[in-house]
């Protein structure tokens, strides 16, 4: 393009326009996930009411659009996908039979003045704004929990685990994503009637995910304000539930292991500094329904003596349950 292009997310405020000089590239991310996900383009110097709007999720080669007379001629927009990144290509389009126009000195001087003004408006790029992306993909992950005895009491198995973290996306934005297609938690205590503590009700294919978590964080340099523009949690898409089977001896064994760990040793309790609870601001909270079916079996003979006191008999009577539905 002979003239700079201004771009932003649609329905933005007046000063949300960003400048794209000729023969240049710039990264872009949604300013507000609650607004429409459309990219708005405007040739510098044209009427803002005639801006162009495009859906970047739709991969296509758009027809050339006549913007105005002069050196801009027709605007050609092409949206392609390179791996996981959407690329919007903006270029001039002229008929092959028409010779390429030559810019006059008047246009050249006006363009140089525009670029000079835009460069003064834009803040210098900081070295801390460099983009950083890391993705970890594991076909299968197993974690064993061993207590002080030592004896294995818990085993966690995860299939097709994907962890992704991105930072330096502009405006202090960072993103974290987690997804998995298989999850199972096993009770490793010997002779337990419920060896599987947690598992999905239905087995999904390797291409589907039973759990997805996404969080966008925005750092503003303040310790008393935490901003999360987007938090999303999605369970199985086929409305399947997670089965939870709890045997009472496992609860007491886990409680004993936690007491032996003594988490208070991990932080200094002698500090005199006053802590202030931060203000948490969430832009969009997108949580789908996650269903559980809980089964629990009490075992009074394996219960530590004197733990529940008067409530022991009541807990034995009311604690037994089978496939109790719980929805979040």
Automatic annotation (TrEMBL):
One of its GO terms (biological process) is protein targeting to vacuole. It comes from the Eukaryota. Belongs to the VPS13 family. PANTHER family: INTERMEMBRANE LIPID TRANSFER PROTEIN VPS13, VACUOLAR PROTEIN SORTING-ASSOCIATED PROTEIN VPS13. This is Putative vacuolar protein sorting-associated protein 13D. It comes from Senna tora.
């Amino acid at each position: 393009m002979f003239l700079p292009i201004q771009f932003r997310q649609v329905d933005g405020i007046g000063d949300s326009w960003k400048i794209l000089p000729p023969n240049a590239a710039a990264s872009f991310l949604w300013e507000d996930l609650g607004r429409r996900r459309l990219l708005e383009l405007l040739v510098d110097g044209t009427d803002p009411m005639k801006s162009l709007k495009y859906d970047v999720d739709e991969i296509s080669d758009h027809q050339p659009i006549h913007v105005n007379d002069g050196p801009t001629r027709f605007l050609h927009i092409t949206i392609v996908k390179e791996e996981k990144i959407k690329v919007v290509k903006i270029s001039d389009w002229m008929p092959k039979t028409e010779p390429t126009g030559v810019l006059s000195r008047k246009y050249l001087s006006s363009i140089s003045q525009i670029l000079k003004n835009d460069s003064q408006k834009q803040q210098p790029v900081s070295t801390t704004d460099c983009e950083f992306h890391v993705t970890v993909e594991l076909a299968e992950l197993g974690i064993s929990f061993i207590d002080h005895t030592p004896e294995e009491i818990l085993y966690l198995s995860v299939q097709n685990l994907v962890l992704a973290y991105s930072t330096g996306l502009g405006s202090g934005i960072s993103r974290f994503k987690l997804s998995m297609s298989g999850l199972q938690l096993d009770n490793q205590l010997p002779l337990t009637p419920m060896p599987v503590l947690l598992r999905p009700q239905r087995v999904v294919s390797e291409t589907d995910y039973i759990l997805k978590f996404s969080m966008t964080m925005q750092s503003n340099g303040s310790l008393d304000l935490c901003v999360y523009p987007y938090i999303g949690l999605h369970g199985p898409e086929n409305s399947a539930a997670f089965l939870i089977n709890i045997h009472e001896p496992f609860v007491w064994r886990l409680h004993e292991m936690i007491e032996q760990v003594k988490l208070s040793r991990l932080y200094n309790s002698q500090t005199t500094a006053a802590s202030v609870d931060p203000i948490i601001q969430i832009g969009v909270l997108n949580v789908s329904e996650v269903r559980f079916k809980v089964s629990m079996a009490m075992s009074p003979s394996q219960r530590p003596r004197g733990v529940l006191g008067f409530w022991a008999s009541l807990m034995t009577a009311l604690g037994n349950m089978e496939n109790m539905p719980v929805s979040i």
